[in-house]
Amino acid sequence: MSAGRLLIVAGTGTGIGKTHFSEALLLALSGQYARVAGVKPIETGMREATVSDASRLERVSSFHVKHFGYVFAEPLSPHLAARETATPIRLDVLVPLIHAAQADADVLLVELPGGLFTPLSDTEVNADLVHALSPDITLLVAPDRLGVLHEVLSTHRAAGTVSVELNGIVLVCPERPDSSTGHNGAELERLLSVPVVANVGRASPHALASSPDLKALGKRLAHIWAA
Ligand SMILES: Nc1ncnc2c1ncn2[C@@H]1O[C@H](COP(=O)(O)OP(=O)(O)O)[C@@H](O)[C@H]1O
Ligand SMILES: [Mg+2]
């Protein structure tokens, strides 16, 4: 069986709309592919979560992937949650599990916890997991607000130091827009060689899935993957 496509959803931080965007993208991709699934292989804060990211992604997947990975109760950085519970997060365990799920799907979306440089252990960060996975596409989600130019530019530079290529930036409209909202995308495209592939407005994942930006992103990915 040939492997499906592996799409990483990374972010500049937490609480910025990574899962919300992922839900919308999974719904948009379901129109083009039969077996589309989203997973969250490292999740913390389950004690406080009313619904886990893993469940949110599963609900909009068209294809069931058996749960795997690391789940922690405390709302801490993964490396701290791992240390406190004496459960080291091992990339050599995660990578084959993710590749196995990828092999079964047409598209496997993997949402990373926190930001691209959030620590997973004392020596490894999310970006090291991305590097080890060799994904087909890595998208960086960032909030469309003041400060995002620094967040995206610094994350992009740092990603280069660990040979992680960012293929697209996704800007999510924050709950409270500011004077920069709506203008950051054009600035990022001037300052970076990475395209802004979607501007995500404030709406439900289902409504966003049929928005022009998400539809265009779905088509863009299908086009890249068909080549
Ligand atoms: N574009 C959006 N429109 C409406 N609500 C959003 C949007 N993006 C995020 N949210 C809401 O903001 C909260 C944080 O978003 P979430 O996707 O969970 O962030 P992350 O995965 O980056 O931690 C959630 O309640 C989510 O539903
Ligand atoms: Mg999330």
Defining traits:
227 residues, alpha/beta, Rossmann fold, two-stranded parallel sheet, 40% helix, binds adenosine-5'-diphosphate, binds magnesium ion
Descriptive notes:
By secondary structure, the protein is α/β, with parallel strands linked by helices. The chain has one domain: P-loop containing nucleotide triphosphate hydrolases (Rossmann fold, 3-Layer(aba) Sandwich), CATH 3.40.50.300. The chain has 9 helices and 8 strands. α7 (184-191) links the parallel β7 (168-172) and β8 (196-200). α6 (148-161) runs parallel beside α7. The longest helix has 15 residues, at 212-226. The relative contact order is 0.19. The model has no long low-confidence stretch (mean pLDDT 96). Magnesium ion binds at residues 18-19, 53, 111.
Topology record:
Layout: E1 5-11, H1 18-30, E2 36-39, E3 42-43, H2 53-59, E4 70-71, H3 78-84, H4 91-104, E5 107-111, H5 126-133, E6 137-143, H6 148-161, E7 168-172, H7 184-191, E8 196-200, H8 205-209, H9 212-226
Parallel strand pairs: 1-5, 1-6, 2-5, 3-4, 6-7, 7-8
Helix pairs in contact: 1-9, 4-5, 6-7
The chain binds adenosine-5'-diphosphate and magnesium ion.
Q: What portion of residues belong to β-strands?
A: 15-25%
Percent range of helical residues: 40-55%
Main sheet strand line-up: 2-5-1-6-7-8
Cα distance spanning the termini: 19 Å
Q: CATH fold name, please?
A: Rossmann fold
Q: In angstroms, what is the radius of gyration? A: 16 Å
Whole-number total of structural domains: 1
Assigned CATH class: Alpha Beta
Number of DSSP E strands: 8
The best one-word shape is globular
What ligands does this structure carry?
adenosine-5'-diphosphate, magnesium ion
Order of helices and strands: EHEEHEHHEHEHEHEHH
Second CATH tier, the architecture: 3-Layer(aba) Sandwich
List unreliable stretches of 5+ residues.
none
Task: Report the average pLDDT across residues.
Answer: 96
- Structural class by helix and strand composition: alpha/beta
Number of helices: 9
CATH H-level superfamily title: P-loop containing nucleotide triphosphate hydrolases
